[in-house]
Amino acid sequence: xxxxxxxxxxxxxxxxxxxxxxxxxxxxxxxxxxxxxxxxxxxxxxxxxxxxxxxxxxxxxxxxxxxxxxxxxxxxxxxxxxxxxxxxxxxxxxxxxxxxxxxxxxxxxxxxxxxxxxxxxxxxxxxxxxxxxxxxxxxxxxxxxxxxxxxxxxxxxxxxxxxxxxxxxxxxxxxxxxxxxxxxxxxxxxxxxxxxxxxxxxxxxxxxxxxxxxxxxxxxxxxxxxxxxxxxxxxxxxxxxxxxxxxxxxxxxxxxxxxxxxxxxxxxxxxxxxxxxxxxxxxxxxxxxxxxxxxxxxxxxxxxxxxxxxxxxxxxxxxxxxxxxxxxxxxxxxxxxxxxxxxxxxxxxxxxxxxxxxxxxxxxxxxxxxxxxxxxxxxxxxxxxxxxxxxxxxxxxxxxxxxxxxxxxxxxxxxxxxxxxxxxxxxxxxxxxxxxxxxxxxxxxxxxxxxxxxxxxxxxxxxxxxxxxxxxxxxxxxxxxxxxxxxxxxxxxxxxxxxxxxxxxxxxxxxxxxxxxxxxxxxxxxxxxxxxxxxxxxxxxxxxxxxxxxxxxxxxxxxxxxxxxxxxxxxxxxxxxxxxxxxxxxxxxxxxxxxxxxxxxxxxxxxxxxxxxxxxxxxxxxxxxxxxxxxxxxxxxxxxxxxxxxxxxxxxxxxxxxxxxxxxxxxxxxxxxxxxxxxxxxxxxxxxxxxxxxxxxxxxxxxxxxxxxxxxxxxxxxxxxxxxxxxxxxxxxxxxxxxxxxxxxxxxxxxxxxxxxxxxxxxxxxxxxxxxxxxxxxxxxxxx
Length: 784
Ligand code: MCN
Known about the structure:
Blueprint: H1 15-19, E1 35-41, E2 47-53, H2 55-59, E3 63-68, H3 69-75, E4 102-103, E5 109-115, H4 118-127, E6 129-134, H5 141-145, E7 160-168, H6 171-176, E8 180-188, E9 191-192, E10 200-206, E11 211-216, H7 221-232, E12 239-242, H8 258-270, E13 274-277, H9 280-286, E14 289-290, E15 293-301, E16 307-318, H10 328-335, E17 345-354, H11 368-386, H12 390-397, E18 406-407, E19 412-413, H13 418-431, H14 434-443, E20 447-459, H15 464-469, E21 478-484, E22 490-494, H16 503-515, E23 522-525, H17 544-571, E24 578-581, E25 584-587, E26 590-596, H18 597-605, E27 621-626, E28 632-645, E29 650-661, H19 668-687, E30 718-723, H20 740-756, E31 766-767, H21 771-783
Parallel strand pairs: 1-13, 8-31, 11-12, 16-17, 22-23, 29-30
Antiparallel strand pairs: 1-5, 2-4, 2-6, 3-5, 7-17, 8-15, 9-14, 10-11, 10-13, 15-16, 18-19, 20-28, 21-22, 21-27, 24-25, 25-26, 28-29
Helix pairs in contact: 10-11, 11-12, 11-20, 16-17, 17-18, 19-20
The protein binds pterin cytosine dinucleotide.
Protein name: Xanthine dehydrogenase family protein molybdopterin-binding subunit
Domain Aldehyde oxidase/xanthine dehydrogenase a/b hammerhead: 20-136
Organism: Saccharothrix xinjiangensis
């Protein structure tokens, strides 16, 4: 059945391949004559590179090339690009594909070897001699900002790598008139996306055609192509980027890295394809780090609980050089910190501080989880101060349904029914029996609590205008192509990337319903810049459904009209009298008169003589370039049930429930899975994950025994409730949601812990809530 496919709980068409070992991941790609590369990475956090001696490595049997940072620099025409560049003329602390003169974080690449295989390349790496002159390392925000701190970039006056301000309304006046002012300081640890499949590239330079062919595990093939062109000085048409199956991206594979440039330069140097895949240990220092921030805020409110102002500073603890998305994740924290609330006056300074750590970049949720933690903490703190229920404060400050479109400090929110979403969550929690369970546990002396958070997810990015205004130098439009072939089969060519989120299934559902064909008559092709349409943004910011899906819907609607025009001509009836379902076109009210889509395909491609109406072009293909007029704003209310062992400080999640609204849902099964996966990552950030650095700045996190991601044992049962407030400006009404699960999890868990420990007066203002941190908070609560 094609009717009703949008909204159907269809199992993912991607899964049989993935689950039966038929997927091709980057490391499965083997090009003829391919070499494998390895990098020498600095173990020091900060040092001058005095001398790199590559002679012994170059002489090692099986080695084809050894490159230093200076060699790579000489082979490119630009340093590592930063797409976040609000002021193109402002100097930014950018890096090079391999360090030149100075290393600024442990793990930074210093030299690269291409050899017959990875083991030989690693052996040769050990033969490279580097003379370093160690420099004082700066690994904390406080050290970096201290007067007289060692400077990471001599051409900058201090260690501030970038700044931004987000503001709206008269903040001073709001605070002058406030009945209540609350202040708080928050700290969030460093995390990384840690996808199961680490990053990797196979680069092949063709000296005859001067073309670069890249296989890359990326979420943004077109963006890579643009940036690669910029660095190598190549026209983008000379670069092809192909993406094999991606074993999780989670934002880390959105960013642009030096390794892909190094592989390309090695291929050019050796005349052979070169593969470079990071191992797990490298992944912890070479894939973007994220989340580490210190945030200070003040909230102004009236005695009745109306929030009138919010101000403060977001300090992003950046790395030694800017990552490709620059300050943008920290800016996004500031840009979304008013969340679902109508706060008339707002000012947030954003300060990106350089430290001798890995570059800061994308991770699912971007800046939103921190923004959510802050606004939800402040709402609960205001409720405590006023002696009222936190949900009463939420309800008082929610943006009303009648207030949409609503201008938040940066984004215009499209639609939302926040109070209904909160009620949906509360009803589900009551139905699940959590309040009764928690109170009987407490009667037994157990510390069990329930916590809530309400989030908005600004998603479905573009339009291009807003992307550019936010300082990003790339577009926000999508192009989708849909074709019916001569046998009536449908192929969708999308610029969106599949990285495990089920986008092929969802796009197939949109195409199948719109064109009236069964789902298995649709093939979705992605991940090849030579054959797929341009999507300069790529897949990130939860945009595949709201931008790609909407573009496809429009293209498929036009294609369906063409199909019906041709069918009408063949059946000698008006196209208005035709319906199409399950690949068969029939005349309304005359069930006998039918025509298959294959027959129309045949007419459009093969039997053109008289088969097409006058003036109708052959072939059945439509493309749509869609630059949305706005972002989409989905929302959700998360409830967490936890128990706390007050002796050990261990928090055990017992239940996790999300009431969610992402407009028209294409596939509720996928959306549920996305919420579960995001929530699992949110639980990781709330309780376990942190990248550690030692006192001298050494990177301590080397494996999953150091970096604890939640496993099936740690995640509780999940439940999801749906409601739907379609995005009115988006064809189809879809809103993005791929990051929602992670956004609200931290705050909900923190509030559940606070609730469980209400007798101990614990408040949580930093993540993760590790056992030692929680025991300290319990002691501190007892001391108050
Ligand atoms: N969907 C839907 N109906 C909607 C909205 C979405 O059925 N109204 C479906 C979509 O079709 C898609 C999924 O839900 O299959 C997520 O859609 P969307 O919100 O459009 O997000 P994207 O497809 O753009 O995915 C990106 C988003 C981000 S930014 C990260 S990071 C992320 C994520 O989603 N990384 C993931 N989910 C991931 N899931 C997996 N398994 N692996 C990753 O790397």
